[in-house]
Amino acid sequence: MSEVFEGYERQYCELSANLSRKCNSTSLLPDGGEKNAKVNEIKSGLDDCDVLIRKMDLEARSLQPNVKAMLLAKLREYKSDLNKLKREFKRITSGDVNQASRVELLEAGMADVHSVSADQRERMTMSVERLNQSGDRIKESRRTMLETEELGVSILEDLHQQRQTLLHAHNKLHGVDDAIDKSKKVLTSMLRRMTRNKWIVGSVIAALVVAIIFIILFKISHH
After folding, report:
1. What is the spatial distance between Cα 76 and Cα 70, in angstroms, rounded to a whole number?
2. By C-alpha distance, which of 38, 17, 42 is closest to 114?
3. What's the CA gap between 104 and 167, in Å, rounded?
4. How far is CA 53 from CA 31, 60, 67, 84, 87, in A?
5. Exposed (0-12), middle (13-18) or buried (19+): which is 164, by Cβ within 10 Å?
6. How confident is the model at residue 98 (pLDDT cuts 50, 70, 90)?
7. For the whole prediction, is pTM greater than 0.70?
8. 17-55: pLDDT as tens digits
């Protein structure tokens, strides 16, 4: 929750309650200097309320969507409250309030001054409580988001380590493949040499056998 918005909200609630009391008391005054002074004070206060409403509106629209929607809904209530104060101020300054109305307002208005003030305080208290609850929910959401982010980073690190392991294993397998290829070439060369040597030995043996046969035949023929 925005602390800036909360500050504007507290100022508005206090100012609104004060203006409501002034409107009730001013409507009972006779025309004259004192009433004119009160009217000027109320007009200045209404202008300040307008400024606070605009500030709250700008601050609410700069926040995240979920917080923004909640604050704008609350802001509509404050705008409605301010419009009621403006209508009451217009009624006071219109000059159409007769003496009977003043008496009636004296009887009803004075009795309601304290209740209006109590209502304003209760409304402000409830608003602050709602703001605190919303702030707690936002803090919890931020904590969950940070935990999720940390978990994501941990998973990415694990995946990176697994990738490095796989690449290392792949390099080892590639080295084994090279060694196997070299071994195959050596064995092939050895087999070729063995085959060639086999033919040489066979030829030597055959030549010896033929020589022995000739020697035997030669000896037999001379006897």
Report:
1. 10
2. 17
3. 91
4. 31, 10, 17, 14, 17
5. exposed
6. very low
7. no
8. 999 998 988 888 887 888 888 899 999 999 999 999 999
The Cα–Cα gap between 67 and 25 comes to 38
Question: Which of these, 86, 131, 92, 132, lies nearest to 109 by C-alpha position?
Answer: 92
Contact predicate 8/55, CB 8 Å:
yes
- Closest by CA position to 67, among listed 1, 11, 113: 1
Integer Cα distance of 77 and 123 in angstroms: 11
Rounded CA Rg of the chain: 51
Cα distances (angstroms) measured from residue 5 to each of 65, 71, 142: 15, 9, 19
**pLDDT, tens only, 158-193:** 778 888 887 887 777 677 678 788 878 888 888 888
- d(CA 94, CA 177) in angstroms, rounded, equals 101
Domain coordinates of the chain in residue numbers? 3-159
> What span, in angstroms and rounded, lies between the C-alpha atoms of 31 and 35?
6
Q: What tokens were used for 79?
A: 């705008």
CATH topology (fold) of 3-159: Methane Monooxygenase Hydroxylase; Chain G, domain 1 (1.20.58)
